What does this fold into?
Amino acid sequence: MNFQFELIEDKVEFFEANNLKTLQKKIESQIDENRAILLSVHSVSHQMHINENGQTYFTAVVHFKKK
It folds into this structure.
C-alpha cells in the first residue's frame, strides 16, 4: 500500500453572519484550524448588505496560503 501526502497550498473559505462580532468569531476559529495545517491568511474581503427590512448581513471571503 502506497500513501502519498500533498500539502494544501491555497484554500478559499466563505463566511456569513447577521452581525460583525459573530463573523469575526467564525473567521478567527477557522484561522486557528488552518494554522494547524500550516496555512496563514493571505487576504480578506468583506461586504455588508442591508435588506429591505433594515437587517444587516455580513459576508467575508478569506484566502489562506501555505506558510
